[in-house]
Amino acid sequence: MTHNTTTASAEAEVRVRDLTVHYRIEGTEYPAIASVTLDLPRGRITGLVGESGSGKSTLALALMNAISEPGRVSGGTVHVDGVGEVTALSAKQLRAVRGSALGYVFQASQNSMNPLRTIGRQILDLGRSHDVKDLPGLLHRARELAERMGLDGKRVLDSYQHELSGGMRQRLGIVFALVLNAKVLILDEPTTALDVLSQAAVLKIIREVHEENHLSTLIVTHDMGVVSEIADNLAVMYGGRIVEHGPALELLRAPSHPYTKALIRATARITGDLASARALPGRPPDLTTIPKTGCVFRERCAFATDVCTGSEPRLEEFRPGHRRACHADVALVRTSPATPKGDVS
Ligand SMILES: Nc1ncnc2c1ncn2[C@@H]1O[C@H](COP(=O)(O)OP(=O)(O)OP(=O)(O)O)[C@@H](O)[C@H]1O
Ligand SMILES: [Mg+2]
């Protein structure tokens, strides 16, 4: 585990500023992410966590300008070093950038391969669509990556999707993302179809490749266990907002946002103590029920006061490299044994 102690933004490969995405539901637009500002520094793995529906995949897709109808990027910018302003690229430029400069694995991408072509042919298709000259070299690299993921490289490249298990396909999704030497790697739930042992092996390879290539990596997951093993920095999302962002170890040991604290408490794998693991009570809001004013977490928050109803807290740095969006006193949140409202455990 190579956690770093700062989020040093000076070298950020990816700079997201005030990014907002709306989805249209029955004629009305709702923000799925709102004013997200986040740096993905080079050489660091950023974990993006939060409950289902908090906007993690929406943010990951927006980083590649891949939001489709009924959604749209309605504000903000995404700057990627060497690529430029991603939100301003033409469709053709985007196709060139996605899969090469920006490697990505979509959520459930294990189900989205071409059923009619072998994996090897799909690697060649990917290479041709990005004007790769050395196609045998590309296949060689794909095979090598697959083998590092614990797969039989030759066999999987000769296989069709239906001949592979979900876990094998998930690992191949990561091979596809890495094979063109991307500098930015975005992985949305990359290990959900894997058993615990394969998960650990795949996380180890992701870490190795990340370090060898000095990548900027974003791993989206709802599994705090995964991020605690691999991430240098953590960003926590709730109701389409980043509510806390900082060095992973510091954030896990001393969460400073009530939501992060509750999320960690709800994860027995982190605390290592089943008895003290608390269910996170209540439900996260959906797009139509996210509060339009005030703090989005206030209804489930043990620290909420009147000010949380009246004004939305800004995501502000309270110590170098560590930001949070909360009106409550940092020391109080960190030291209080308070559990969220309505705790039933
Ligand atoms: N195409 C769409 N049309 C309408 N609403 C959408 C669409 N895609 C996502 N949403 C809504 O946007 C919100 C954020 O969804 P998103 O998929 O980004 O969440 P997530 O954090 O990735 O969740 P999960 O952990 O379940 O993958 C949710 O309320 C979701 O219902
Ligand atoms: Mg998702």
TrEMBL record:
Leader sequence segment: none
UniProt-listed InterPro entries: AAA+_ATPase, ABC_Ni/Peptide_Import, ABC_transporter-like_ATP-bd, Oligopep_ABC_C, P-loop_NTPase
Molecular function via GO: ATP binding
Alphabetical list of Gene3D superfamilies matching this protein: P-loop containing nucleotide triphosphate hydrolases
Protein location: Cell membrane
CDD domains (alphabetical): ABC_NikE_OppD_transporters
SUPFAM superfamilies linked to this entry: P-loop containing nucleoside triphosphate hydrolases
Highest taxon, organism lineage: Bacteria
Positions of the ABC transporter domain: 14-264
Record protein name field: ABC transporter ATP-binding protein
Organism: Streptomyces aureus
